Amino acid sequence: MPPSSHQSAELRHAALHWLVENDAVQKAAGVRRLAQAWAAGELALDAGAALTASPLIPGHPAKPELVSPLTVKRRAMNTPEGRAAMVHALVHIEFNAINLALDALWRFPNMPREYYADWLQVADEEALHFMLLAEHLQVQGFAYGDFSGHNGLWDMAVRTQHDVLVRMALLPRTMEARGLDVTPGTKAKLVQAGDHAVGPILDIVLRDEIGHVTIGNRWFNYLCEQRGLEPEATYAGLLVEYNAVLRRGPFNLEARRAAGFSEQELAGLGLS
Ligand SMILES: [Fe+2]
Question: How remote is the CA of residue 35 from the centroid of ligand 1, in Å?
Fold first, then answer.
């Protein structure tokens, strides 16, 4: 480990260290080692430490160039480059997802130990997804950074950095849950276009993402209970406040049910 990670014997310090890391492959590998160290009992947890944000977060490579979501080109599935661009978009989401999980770890103090263990597990799985998809992209003759990407996920992280309850509501429970809705369609498009190897990778992604949304639901509900808030009304209010109401499908009701959404919430999707 580099000398700058000497504090990484403590989980939240280490999470901040890897969040600052610019190299995507180093970051993913570092996060996977961190999860192993935690499982082996080699890491302490200081839930009470108030850590200072670095101006360098999130660390990210010079490429991909980050552009507005509106300027990301449509991907033509009938060309190898178009299919690679779509896989690249998935790699970029997973890279962002590693950063988001690390941010949930270091930023919010005084949560129960299980909260930190949960988000480390998420970070580890996102790192695995990143590696699998980046490798798949490489097999197709492209690398992470060859296409542009957008920064929508991290933008929402910035908007929700003041409150862990708002973060849980808007990131895992809203934006990651959106991933549950769209992943089956993305998989179908790629596989139909001849990219058969991506199918099993996206099955792993979808399976794990159900777990991540479940974790978001668990901690959102925990925080609502702690603050005496009614979860469904609180969530509905936050969606409006943050302009994040889902107006259109597809909705993967089965996956959302598995991740702990209530029937009442599922019935309300797309109706607002
Ligand atoms: Fe993921």
Answer: 15
* Residue 51 lies inside a defined structural domain of this protein: no
DSSP 8-state class, residue 182: H
pLDDT at 258 over 90: yes
Q: Tell me, in angstroms, the distance from the centre of ligand 1 to residue 186's CA.
A: 14
Least confident of 59-73, 113-127, 256-270: 59-73
| Centroid of ligand 1 to alpha carbon of 79 (angstroms) | 25
Give the Cα separation of 26 and 55 in Å (integer). 20
Question: From ligand 1's centre to the CA of 97, what distance in Å?
Answer: 6
C-alpha 129 – ligand 1 centre gap (Å)? 5
For the chain, how are helix, strand and coil distributed in percent, rounded to 5?
A: 65, 0, 30
Cα(183) to centroid of ligand 1, in Å? 11
> Ligand 1 centre and the CA of 16: distance in Å?
19
Residue 86 scores a pLDDT above 80: yes
Instruction: Give the distance (Å) from ligand 1 centre to CA of residue 178.
Output: 12
- The DSSP string of 43-65 is -B--TT--PPPPTTPSP--S-SP
Cα–Cα distance between 149 and 272 in angstroms, integer?
29
Dihedral-angle region of residue 71 (phi above 0 means left; psi in -120 to 50 means alpha; beta otherwise):
alpha
Q: Is 58 part of any domain? A: no
In a domain, 59, yes or no: no
Please give the tally of structural domains in the chain: 1
How far does the centroid of ligand 1 lie from the alpha carbon of residue 228, in Å? 32
**Residue 214 sits in which domain range?**
3-46+75-268
Tens of pLDDT, residues 219-236: 999 999 999 999 999 999
Distance 103 CA to ligand 1 centre (A): 15
